[in-house]
């Protein structure tokens, strides 16, 4: 075996290990345990995430303001999310809601979390794809559709 062939084999093996590790890390699901002290998990480096608690403009999105009572609004948000195509409510607790969305065709999973702020005035929101680099604003658009439906339903 030539030195060149050996080097190419090493590069291929390294790339395969890197890609496998990256895919495994990206498909392990949401980091729900990282909701701590009123904070949702931060957005990962790839810009396929939006969060009302994010500082960077790539990720920043407005929270959803409470319009009646937190419990009534959470129920309304739950109904809106449950009625959306390919959505599944995974966890619901007072002041917290976690849902997943399956993308059409490819079947990728996106995670959505709503967390009531400590003062009860807003729901902080985080929506993120699990894999890929860009999401073409799918998560941002989803949050804005939820917000618009919520405002309409609150009138």
Describe this structure in words.
This protein has 155 residues and is an alpha+beta fold. It has helices at residues 3-26, 70-83, 138-153; strands at 49-51, 64-65, 87-93, 96-102, 109-116, 122-129. Strands 1, 2, 3, 4, 5 and 6 form a six-stranded antiparallel β-sheet that branches.
In short:
The protein has helices at residues 3-26, 70-83, 138-153, and strands spanning 49-51, 64-65, 87-93, 96-102, 109-116, 122-129.
List the helices and strands and how they pair.
Blueprint: H1 3-26, E1 49-51, E2 64-65, H2 70-83, E3 87-93, E4 96-102, E5 109-116, E6 122-129, H3 138-153
Antiparallel strand pairs: 1-6, 2-6, 3-4, 4-5, 5-6
Order of helices and strands: HEEHEEEEH
Strand content: 15-25%
Architecture of the largest domain, according to CATH? 2-Layer Sandwich
Share of helical residues: 25-40%
Radius of gyration from the alpha-carbon trace, in angstroms: 19 Å
Q: Class of the largest domain in CATH? A: Alpha Beta
Mean pLDDT: 84
Q: Please give the largest β-sheet.
A: 6 strands, antiparallel
CATH topology term of the largest domain? TATA-Binding Protein
SS field, number of helical segments: 3
Based on DSSP secondary structure assignment, what is the total number of beta strands? Answer: 6
Calculate the terminal CA-CA distance, rounded to whole Å. Answer: 74 Å
CATH homologous superfamily annotation of the largest domain:
Kinase associated domain 1, KA1
Structural class: alpha+beta
Question: What are the low-pLDDT stretches, counting only 5+ consecutive residues below 50?
Answer: 13-28
Number of domains: 2
